[in-house]
Design a protein that fits this description.
Number of helices: 5
Largest sheet: 8 strands, antiparallel, barrel
Low-confidence stretches: 1-32
Radius of gyration: 21 Å
Length: 245
């Protein structure tokens, strides 16, 4: 009887060590399985996820996304430069410019807090800026991964975008996937993949029907890497302050 009691007590201690309190709900949940964390399939369209795993379009450079419930600390500001477009689905935007992004909280080498809440295991706030778009806040960056490897995925709604061919201002919702390995200097083997989820003119146009504009803009896929002069074609996104309020 005594041995049975000790076994139950040890099992209870082991389980509670793998759990954490969710004070807002008054429940105990497994670490990394918070109900507010959306899976990547809920956030990013299947068109992009299938594209990056398809050997017919990616060849030997298919992207295997790190998965897991304990991603590393990715907080900080990063410069993805020089940006090189190396895969797409038929649309060729200009590259070579800099993509800036920031994951909320603070950098390990800095004490400045950008957002008080910072990264909470698999979620974080953030910001992003790339050429041709206004800087935008990211409401929720979802994370997965283990060790030093991670996958970040999120949506951004860019407002007042300008399309020069049609002279239209429009709102573009784009899905992003950023992956790599966290290092002291930044993110090694950094990859940014994005897809246009929706596009809607801010004002009606009598010359360009909405459905035609949508077909022209939606489902465009762009995959970028940081140019590297070494043997590894995938360079690093470096830690560097850039953020402007």
């Amino acid at each position: 009887m005594k041995k049975g009691f000790l076994f139950i007590a040890a099992l209870t201690l082991l389980l509670t060590g793998c759990l954490k309190d969710d004070m807002s709900q008054g429940t105990i949940v497994l670490m990394g399985t918070e109900s507010y964390v959306k899976s990547i399939e809920e956030v990013i369209p299947d068109t992009l996820l299938r594209f990056i795993a398809d050997t017919t379009v990616m060849g030997d450079e298919t992207i295997v996304l790190p998965r897991g419930n304990t991603p590393p600390d990715i907080q900080g500001e990063y410069m993805f430069f020089p940006r090189e477009l190396y895969k797409d689905n038929g649309h060729h935007p200009l590259a070579g410019d800099t993509l800036f992004f920031r994951f909320g909280g603070h950098q390990p080498i800095d004490t400045l807090l950008y957002y008080p809440q910072g990264q909470h295991n698999r979620v974080a706030p953030g910001d992003i800026h790339e050429k041709g778009f206004l800087q935008e806040k990211i409401d929720t960056v979802y994370l997965m991964g283990e060790g030093t490897r991670f996958t970040a995925y999120f949506k951004v709604a860019y407002k007042n975008c300008y399309e020069p061919m049609s002279h239209l201002y429009y709102t573009l919702t784009r899905g992003y996937v950023i992956t790599g390995t966290v290092a002291e200097s930044g993110i090694a083997n950094a990859i940014v993949a994005c897809v246009n989820i929706s596009a809607e003119p801010n004002t009606p146009s009598q010359f360009i029907p909405f459905d035609s504009f949508e077909r022209y803009m939606v489902n465009r896929i762009y995959i970028y890497r940081v140019q590297s002069n070494g043997q590894n074609p995938f360079g690093s996104a470096v830690r560097q302050k850039w953020y402007q309020n």
